[in-house]
Design goal:
The chain is mostly helical and 99 residues long. 75% of the residues lie in helices and 0% in strands. The protein contains five helices and no strands. The relative contact order is 0.15.
Amino acid sequence: MEYESRDEYIIKKYQQDENTMIQLFVHWCINHQLDPVLLYTRAYPYQEKNEALLKAAEEAAAEPEEIEISTGTLLEILQMFGNDDLAFVVSEEIEKSKD
C-alpha cells in the first residue's frame, strides 16, 4: 500500500467509525427520550453545529429504527473518541433518570 493511500485509508476509516459513534449516540438518546442535539450542545456549548450529528438525528427521526445500546457501551465509545465532555453529560442524564 502506498504511503498516501494508507493515510487516506486511515482517515476514511476514522471518519466512518466516527459516523458510527454519532449514530449510536443518536439512537441511545432516542431510546431514552432525549434530544441528541441538546445534549451535544450542553457538552460543547461553544462549538459550531455538528453537521454529522444533525444529519444522523434527521435520518433517525425520518426512519426510526430500534437499536439497543447500553449506556456503558456508549460511554466507552464516546471516551474512545475523546468525547469526554459528552460522556459526562450522558452520565448526568442517567443519574437524573434514577431520581
